[in-house]
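Example 3.
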Amino acid sequence: MDGTPINRDLLLEKAQALVASLESAETSDEQLESNIDEINNLRDNSLFQELGKMTREIHDSIMTFRMDNRIADLAEVDIPDAKDRLEYVIEMTEKAANTAMAVIEDSSPLAEKLGGEASQLKSQWDKFRKRELSHDELRSMGHDVETFFDESEQMTSTLLAGFTEIMMAQGFQDLTGQIIRQVITLVHEIESNLVELVKIQSENIAKDESRPEEKKEETKLEGPQVPGKESSGDVMKGQDDVDDLLASLGF
Amino acid sequence: MKILIVDDFSTMRRIIKNLLRDLGFNNTEEADDGNTGLPKLQSGNFDFLVTDWNMPGMTGIDLLRAVRADDKLKSLPVLMVTAEAKKEQIVMAAQEGVNGYIVKPFTAQTLKEKIDKIFERIEG
């Protein structure tokens, strides 16, 4: 950093006064000391001025940094908001895992039951083939077969519905993925702001350094709605709201 | 019936693909955004498009606009399946000519209803 230039004219004037005092036999020691002090003061002043200027610049930089609303927003709004969103990610993944587990737990006994009934019928059938069944046993087997047909139809559709439920539960991957991407973007922004802060500390950066421009979009995409999070503008609560809105538009 | 599914998340494409198969639509293809989806539409004789909105590269709304601006594709039925739930977005999609709009998370039943409705409308 360049120092504040010493006022040369003033220095010359003081120096000439000192020389004049020295050359004159009548000058007192006090007078000489006062001449030297004046020259010293001149140097001290420019040092103080320089120090003052540096202090002001650092102060300005820090103030600019602090006044930047985006920084305040990051700390007060975005970070707590990101925490809530991540909590919601945990909630969604947990719900999906539980949904899948529940369907599996409910379905396994059904599959076991079907298998068990099938093997029991098979042993009856084998007896029948060997002509070992009595008339009554044959009639009872006919009844069992009918029941088995009904049950397999019913259970198969229950199992298929379960499969669909498990599949739909996997939709969490898309929704949580979108939320996590938003948080990653936020982390990047915090990172670049921290870098800027470090710059201010290590050097007196030029204040007009251009900031990364915010991405412009016709409507900012918000991604999945997080419960308890206010969103800008009107947000549909669910498919019914969407259907009502579209109906009002003539759909 | 040949259907193109456009979504950047492969899990969601798979879910939609399976749901469509359950509904009897076996002929589906996939793309991960508008940039890869549009050329497929232009060269592939598709009868129906299911698209997400928020995708890197070309978004669903831009894909919808491109479809409506293309002479060969402009009457292609388009169903949007997206997490975007703001009123202005749904209105925008409607203005751009979307045929149906489903917000995620959705149910298999909702998808069936919307598809039925779209085809009823087209046939009727």
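The interface with chain B takes residues 164, 167-168, 170-175, 177-178, 218-219, 221-225, 231-236, 238-239, 242, 245-246, 249, 251 of chain A (CB under 8 Å). The first helix of chain A runs from residue 8 to 23.
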